[in-house]
């Protein structure tokens, strides 16, 4: 067991973890952050995407110990005082989700995309999200949501 | 105490943003894998790496001794307890099928079959110990190739003596719905056109994003099961039938479910084994599959060979269609495996007036993962054939593919139309949908550009693909299902509870997993009862709440389940009326119900449904005989299917030097009848088309020569990403269905059914002048390139 201290969604946690514990399992099982989910075992699907110090990472591809001393933001940390983040609002307004399983990762990745490129073209959005799979929407409304969020200045 | 004041206007057709989004976009979701219970144990499966082998020994000693392990279960342990997994469709009375144990007892019949189950205190410990289970196998010859299996070259189940499960034949002459197809073909050979083709529907994997997961809690009177399933009501019945647990002692909950596409329309070994583990240990047990397990062992879809002969006269009027299918069942029959080709069998005529038709379908066992329903289930296969063949006919005649379609399709004034397969198409307007699609697409301009590129020998050629499809939705009249060999019915159930404060609970037997029923059913009820959209809560997916239901698949939910909701709402109004009359001291015949209020005609006097609900709750002023409840139940038995249709047009650019295909534009005009929520409908169309494009261009489950799945992860199984797909232009025409009270049809599968032939027709149209008349799916750059080199097969 290794002791780690991680800031997650604004709160500090100190826990003992097995060195092999993946960040996503630490978030889900030890912290109860079940908004972040697991969809594959090869790092392809992106449903587990969170932010580590403000940049997107696939939390299945990091050990929890690698987050020691860092700040993690999950989908559950986006809304403030009950107000949805503009990106969450844009996904809702544009019907950018159906079953919703990919949605947390998709929203976190979309924010990372806009942080790099606040006014992306459709093609840039499509390329920027290609590491996040969605089986329901065909991505069209996800692209629209990111465009809408960009137009509204969401970051 | 009273309901929200705002009264709705025109909820039907209102693009309401979805209610279910609130939890899904904030991560406050209830997936099965989130369920954690005190003392819960975790399962890990040991799976066969061989496609066909005798299991000669399972040594569990090291696994049992490993950290955290509570027990290890093997086929020998469970031989008497596990029962057999069910199949719900019998294609013919003579059908044969092997027993289907949840855990292999002496042989394994596909790679991925379970041979042992480790139960441990944590998922990690279960996984570690699973590696320590030592299984001895004696490999057996495996039946892997569908055509060879159909010829019984190697037997998948030697005990059956054959690989053929059933041969189903439909002949329009014998059925009295059309002529003799052989006569039509002979006449066309003599003086007309005969086109023969063979198509391969490659094996696909549904690939829902949420891997399957199940939690079983045995710690009370009633067994409680959380399950990532499309069919909680089926699961409840089958747990009872397979394991002998009385049905009333089982509660199944499908909480938030992350997609299904038919892939979670199943009763699985994993469900049975988790129940057994919970029962044996007396502890809550959880099993959540990995993606690799999901791709290998959750049922696959499609996988057919289709041999087709089309006969036409010299003017391009089709005179007959003959289809011979081989359908790969894989190693076992799942719930509707045997019925999937039958659902397609009735749609090979598409939107056309074919006078003669014959289909023969042979369901074949192989030592591969079992196949079953995947989005469209039979209808994409049928639509692909008829739409590919119409393009071939057009090419043969040298006319535009839309022209040859129009020559053969049912005209809008010819409905209702009895088809050659014995169905009755109630309504449609193929002319209108096609005209709209052509205009949006810029059809004539694209044809002109195509001609230019051909003439200039541009290395990047333009292709235009057409698909004018229809499909049958609204599964299904129970009587019809029974006549086709399905064990269950096709009705749906709904209840409405009028709460004392005027709020409304709607309980539906449908089980959404992304379709947005909470929103759409709220709209239906708000509209019918005249209450606010926000005042309606839709409850589903828990057999203790929604006691009766037949769940969600086959684009049935709105056309059957939604209509059950309306029927229940009508009963509430009917029930409330005499009570309103009594309280308003009026004659019931003088009451009008409008905008959620009973009003006495010609007066200001009236009461809202909310006020009535409170008065009924109090009971103070009601007659002794009046029931103290406005609640109502309804079941809805559909009279017939509904038949959505539409025209999809796809333009692709094919690089003739590399074989790479790029979709340049895609227009879909769908007629799904009356639309409750256009936003949800558009989303279904987008996603459906994406999955159809995926079959045309990207996805294929590939096995090596030993039967091992080599597309066993998302590295190799190419679910398209955002970068792979185009934006689609969608539009609708609206021809109401006549088979239900609202005129709705169904939209869940339409896009998938329509788009695959549209894309493949486009690819071939781009290179037909270079000598290519077919490319097997998926039309990868290599396959297109190879076809251009003169060798279509690969």
UniProtKB/TrEMBL annotation, chain A:
Against Pfam families, the record matches this protein to: Fer2, Fer2_2
Q: Which residue ranges does the record assign to the 2Fe-2S ferredoxin-type domain?
A: 2-78
Q: Which CDD domains match?
A: fer2
The protein's GO terms of the molecular function aspect are: 2 iron, 2 sulfur cluster binding; metal ion binding; oxidoreductase activity
The alphabetical list of record keywords is:
2Fe-2S, Iron, Iron-sulfur, Metal-binding, Oxidoreductase
The metabolic or biological pathway listed in the UniProt record of this protein is: Alkaloid degradation; nicotine degradation
Which InterPro entries does this one have?
2Fe-2S-bd, 2Fe-2S-bd_dom_sf, 2Fe-2S_ferredoxin-like_sf, 2Fe-2S_ferredoxin-type, 2Fe2S_fd_BS, Beta-grasp_dom_sf, Diverse_Oxidoreductases
* UniProt cross-references to PANTHER family, sorted A to Z: OXIDOREDUCTASE WITH IRON-SULFUR SUBUNIT
The identity of this protein, by name, is Carbon-monoxide dehydrogenase small subunit
Automatic annotation (TrEMBL), chain B:
Q: Which SUPFAM superfamilies match?
A: CO dehydrogenase molybdoprotein N-domain-like (SSF54665), Molybdenum cofactor-binding domain (SSF56003)
List the PANTHER family.
ALDEHYDE OXIDASE 1-RELATED, XANTHINE DEHYDROGENASE
Q: Note whether Phosphoprotein occurs among the keywords.
A: no
Which stretches make up the Aldehyde oxidase/xanthine dehydrogenase a/b hammerhead domain?
A: 26-141
Per the record, the domain of life is Bacteria
Cofactor(s) named in the record: Mo-molybdopterin cytosine dinucleotide
UniProt keyword Nuclease, yes or no: no
The cross-references to Gene3D superfamilies, in alphabetical order and at most eight, read: Aldehyde oxidase/xanthine dehydrogenase, a/b hammerhead (3.90.1170.50), Aldehyde oxidase/xanthine dehydrogenase, molybdopterin binding domain (3.30.365.10)
Q: Which GO terms describe its molecular function?
A: iron ion binding; oxidoreductase activity
In Swiss-Prot or TrEMBL terms, this protein is called Carbon-monoxide dehydrogenase large subunit
């Amino acid at each position: 067991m290794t002791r780690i201290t991680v800031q997650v969604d604004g709160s500090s946690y100190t826990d003992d973890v097995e060195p092999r514990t993946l960040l996503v399992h630490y978030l889900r099982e030890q912290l109860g952050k079940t908004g972040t989910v697991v969809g594959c075992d090869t790092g392809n699907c992106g449903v587990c995407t969170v932010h580590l110090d403000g940049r997107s990472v696939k939390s299945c591809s990091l050990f929890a110990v690698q987050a020691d001393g860092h700040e993690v933001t999950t989908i559950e940390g986006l809304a403030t005082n009950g107000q949805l983040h503009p990106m969450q609002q844009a996904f809702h307004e544009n019907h950018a989700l159906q079953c919703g399983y990919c949605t947390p990762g998709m929203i976190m990745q979309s924010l990372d995309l806009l942080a790099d490129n606040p006014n992306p073209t459709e093609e840039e959005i499509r390329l920027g999200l290609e590491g996040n799979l969605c089986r329901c929407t065909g991505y069209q409304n996800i692209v629209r949501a990111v465009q809408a969020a960009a137009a509204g200045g969401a970051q | 105490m009273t309901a929200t004041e705002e009264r709705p206007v025109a909820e039907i057709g209102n693009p309401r943003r979805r209610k279910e989004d609130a939890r899904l976009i904030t991560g406050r979701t209830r997936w099965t894998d989130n369920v954690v219970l005190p003392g819960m144990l975790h399962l890990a499966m040991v799976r066969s790496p061989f496609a066909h082998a005798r299991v000669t020994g399972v040594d569990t000693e090291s696994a049992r001794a490993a950290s955290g392990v509570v027990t290890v279960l093997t086929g020998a342990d469970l031989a008497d307890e596990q029962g057999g997994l069910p199949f719900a469709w019998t294609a013919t009375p003579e059908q044969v099928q092997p027993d289907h144990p949840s855990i292999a007892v002496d042989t394994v019949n596909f790679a991925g079959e379970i041979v042992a189950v480790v139960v441990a205190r944590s998922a990690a410990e279960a996984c570690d110990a699973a590696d320590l289970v030592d299984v001895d196998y004696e490999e057996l010859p495996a039946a892997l190739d569908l055509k060879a299996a159909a010829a019984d070259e190697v037997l998948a189940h030697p005990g059956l003596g054959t690989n053929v499960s059933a041969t189903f034949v439909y002949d329009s002459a014998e059925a009295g719905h059309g002529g003799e197809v052989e006569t039509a073909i002979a006449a066309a050979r003599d003086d007309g056109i005969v086109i023969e083709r063979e198509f391969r529907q490659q094996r696909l994997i549904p690939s829902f994003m949420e891997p399957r997961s199940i939690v079983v809690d045995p710690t009370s009177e009633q067994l409680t099961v959380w399950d990532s399933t499309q069919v909680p009501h089926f699961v409840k019945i089958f747990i009872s039938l397979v394991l002998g647990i009385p049905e009333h002692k089982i509660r199944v909950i499908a909480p938030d479910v992350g997609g299904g596409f038919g892939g979670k329309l199943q009763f699985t070994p994993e469900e049975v084994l988790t129940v057994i583990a919970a029962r044996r240990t007396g502890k809550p047990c959880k099993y959540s599959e990995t993606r690799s397990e999901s791709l290998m062992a959750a049922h696959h879809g499609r996988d057919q060979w289709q041999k087709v002969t089309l006969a036409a006269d010299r003017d391009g009027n089709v005179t007959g269609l003959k289809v011979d299918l081989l359908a790969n069942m894989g190693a076992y029959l799942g719930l509707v495996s045997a019925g999937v080709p039958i659902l397609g069998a009735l749609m090979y005529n598409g939107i056309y007036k074919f006078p003669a038709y014959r289909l023969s379908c042979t369901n074949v066992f192989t030592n591969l993962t079992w196949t079953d329903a995947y989005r469209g289930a039979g209808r994409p296969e049928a639509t692909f054939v008829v739409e590919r063949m119409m393009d071939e006919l057009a090419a043969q005649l040298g006319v535009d593919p839309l022209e040859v379609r129009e020559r053969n399709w049912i005209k809008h004034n010819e409905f209702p139309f009895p088809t050659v397969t014995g169905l009755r198409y109630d309504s449609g307007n193929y002319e209108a949908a096609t005209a709209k699609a052509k205009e949006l697409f810029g059809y004539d301009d694209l044809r002109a550009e195509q001609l230019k590129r051909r003439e200039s020998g541009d290395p990047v050629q333009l292709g235009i693909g057409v698909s004018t499809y229809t499909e049958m939705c609204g599964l299904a009249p129970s009587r019809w299902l029974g006549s086709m060999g399905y064990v269950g019915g096709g009705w749906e159930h709904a209840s409405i509870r009028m709460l004392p404060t005027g709020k409304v609970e709607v309980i539906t037997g449908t089980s959404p997993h992304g379709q947005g029923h909470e929103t759409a059913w709220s709209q239906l009820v708000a509209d019918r009862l005249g209450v606010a959209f926000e005042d309606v809560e839709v409850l589903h997916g828990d057999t203790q709440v929604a006691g009766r239901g037949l769940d969600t698949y086959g684009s049935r939910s709105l056309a059957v389940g939604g209509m059950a909701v309306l029927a229940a709402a009508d009963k509430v109004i009917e029930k409330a009326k005499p009570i309103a009359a009594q309280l308003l001291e009026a004659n019931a015949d003088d009451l009008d119900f409008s905008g959620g209020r009973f009003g006495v005609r010609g007066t200001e006097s009236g009461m809202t449904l909310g006020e009535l609900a409170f008065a009924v709750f109090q009971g103070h002023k009601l007659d002794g005989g009046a029931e103290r409840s406005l609640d109502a139940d309804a079941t809805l038995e559909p009279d017939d299917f509904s038949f959505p249709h539409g025209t999809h047009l796809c333009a692709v650019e094919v690089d003739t030097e590399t074989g790479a295909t790029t979709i340049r534009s895609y227009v879909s005009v769908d007629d799904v009848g009356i639309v409750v929520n256009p936003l949800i409908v558009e989303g279904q169309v987008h996603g459906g088309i994406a999955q159809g494009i995926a079959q045309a261009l990207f996805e294929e489950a590939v096995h090596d020569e030993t039967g091992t799945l080599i597309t066993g992860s998302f590295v190799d199984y190419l679910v398209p990403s955002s970068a792979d797909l185009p934006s689609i232009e969608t539009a609708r025409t609206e021809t109401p269905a006549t088979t239900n009270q609202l005129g709705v049809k169904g939209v869940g599968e339409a896009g998938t059914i329509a788009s695959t032939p549209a894309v493949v027709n486009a690819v071939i149209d781009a290179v037909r002048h270079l000598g290519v008349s077919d490319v097997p799916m998926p039309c990868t750059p290599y396959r297109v390139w190879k076809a251009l080199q003169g060798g279509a097969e690969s």
